[in-house]
């Protein structure tokens, strides 16, 4: 009697295990890979936003994927679900926000970021690139450092930087996304430039910050130059500090 009862129990366990395996395989198949290369001192964060697809009373959700900073170049690779179930609710990917972080010093304020995004659509806009025959979409974004004199009272007269990244995004057809690979490589422009035009003037030895007009941010004419602080030094020209 005990032996007869054990057989369906064992079969039940086997069926449960097979069901679990099937569920994991389904989740893996219903996702796409987001990957690429980052320069030194850069980090990528992808925030996937999901909406309820089957009319249940669930709320929109978000999942984050982040690479972290490294001193040298690094590869990032995220497996992002296109859809998943949360209880009775079917959650469907709506968009992926991208946050490209860069650091130019060791202090917390010497970190900044720019945005990008993966936009899910029913049909590609005219001229938007599509996946190739192998299911890959490759793009490159270029990030430029923009320098300025800090406006913060505690850092007044010091150089701070912002990040401007172009091409950090793509349009993706929602129904064709599962199982595909999106590659976004980040490159840095070797030439930095001022955050605002006509606030620094360029010379063969580098950039010099102007004293602004009264009530303006732009340079006086003829220009008068000011010193600034960088890495604890009093400087006259950026980025070399001394002329």
Automatic annotation (TrEMBL):
This is Lipoprotein. It comes from the Bacteria. Residues 1-20 form the signal peptide. Keywords: Signal.
């Amino acid at each position: 009697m005990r032996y007869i009862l054990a057989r369906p129990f064992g079969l039940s366990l086997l069926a449960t295990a097979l069901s679990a395996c099937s569920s994991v395989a389904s989740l893996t198949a219903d996702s796409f890979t987001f990957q690429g290369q980052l320069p030194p001192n850069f980090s990528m964060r992808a925030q996937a936003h999901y909406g309820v697809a089957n009319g249940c009373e669930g709320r929109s959700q978000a999942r984050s994927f982040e690479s972290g900073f490294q001193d040298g170049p690094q590869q990032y690779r995220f497996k992002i679900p296109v859809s998943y179930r949360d209880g009775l609710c079917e959650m469907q990917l709506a968009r992926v926000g991208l946050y490209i972080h860069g650091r130019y010093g060791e202090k917390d304020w010497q970190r900044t970021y720019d945005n990008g995004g993966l936009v899910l659509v029913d049909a590609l806009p005219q001229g938007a690139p599509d996946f190739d025959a192998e299911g890959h979409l490759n793009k490159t974004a270029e990030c430029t450092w923009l320098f300025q004199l800090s406006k913060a009272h505690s850092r007044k007269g010091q150089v701070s930087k912002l990040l401007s990244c172009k091409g950090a995004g793509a349009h993706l057809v929602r129904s064709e996304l599962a199982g595909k690979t999106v590659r976004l490589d980040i490159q840095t422009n070797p030439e930095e430039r001022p955050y605002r035009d006509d606030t620094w003037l360029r010379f063969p030895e580098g950039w010099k910050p102007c004293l602004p007009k009264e009530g303006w941010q732009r340079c006086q004419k003829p220009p008068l130059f000011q010193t600034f602080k960088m890495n604890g030094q009093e400087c006259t020209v950026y980025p070399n500090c001394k002329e």
